[in-house]
Design brief:
GO molecular function: single-stranded DNA binding
Keywords: DNA-binding
Shape: extended
Structural class: mainly beta
Oligomer: single chain
InterPro entries: NA-bd_OB-fold, Primosome_PriB/ssb
Radius of gyration: 32 Å
Helix content: 10-25%
Strand content: 25-35%
Protein name: Single-stranded DNA-binding protein
Largest sheet: 5 strands, mixed, barrel
Organism: Planktothricoides sp. SpSt-374
CATH class of one domain: Mainly Beta
Length: 194
């Protein structure tokens, strides 16, 4: 199944055109960040057809953040230099607009900035609380202190009964009944073609 979901920023506004059959088609260029901070953001062409093309032309503008659902497609383009170039494009099925930056009150961020900013302080796995970096809490393997504020009952697994008790004895094997294969039907050898 070819299903693709992309969160991106529009860097080139949509351009609406019509085919010779008067079917609307629109395309725009979007940019999305990659996971590695040393790489440049990637760009991708987004194509929409029909009513979605007209809606994309009316509602999408440069700088908008969108989530696009669709399928990935590869196109081969003849270049003037005399060679063929393959290009990936996203054929949109749905476009979801994200809240504008002004409405959230937050500064604009890219996914790479979010990944880099997600450095949380270390957490003590016993108490699930942040650890002070100057004096790390001692680590105890599976031992709860009496000072622990969150008391949870200890887990004790229920013993599993032997398999014979589950099946009222050992499972029995039955041999399948052997049946001779049926012979093929006789061939029709007369000269009538049906």
């Amino acid at each position: 199944m070819n299903s693709f979901v992309l969160m991106a920023e529009i860097i080139q506004p949509p351009q609406l055109r019509y085919t010779s059959e008067n079917k609307p088609i629109a395309d725009m260029l979007v940019e999305f960040s990659v996971l590695r901070q040393d790489e440049q953001p990637a760009t991708l062409r987004v194509v929409a057809w029909g009513n979605l093309a007209e809606e994309m032309n009316d509602t999408c503008k440069q700088g908008d953040r969108v989530v696009i659902e669709g399928r990935l497609s590869m196109n081969t383009v003849e270049r003037p230099e005399g060679f063929r170039e393959k290009r990936a494009e996203l054929v949109a099925r749905k476009i979801h607009h994200l809240a504008p930056v002004a409405a959230t009150g937050l500064p604009p961020t890219t996914p790479t900035q979010q990944v880099g900013a997600a450095k949380a302080p270390p957490v003590n796995m016993e108490s699930r609380r942040p650890v002070n970096s100057e004096s790390p809490a001692p680590v105890t393997a599976g031992i709860r202190s009496s000072k622990s504020a969150d008391r949870r009952p200890e887990f004790s697994p229920t013993p599993t009964p032997p398999i014979e008790e589950l099946y009222d004895g050992a499972p029995s094997r039955q041999e399948p009944e052997r049946v001779a294969p049926t012979p093929p039907p006789p061939l029709d050898e007369d000269e009538i073609p049906f």
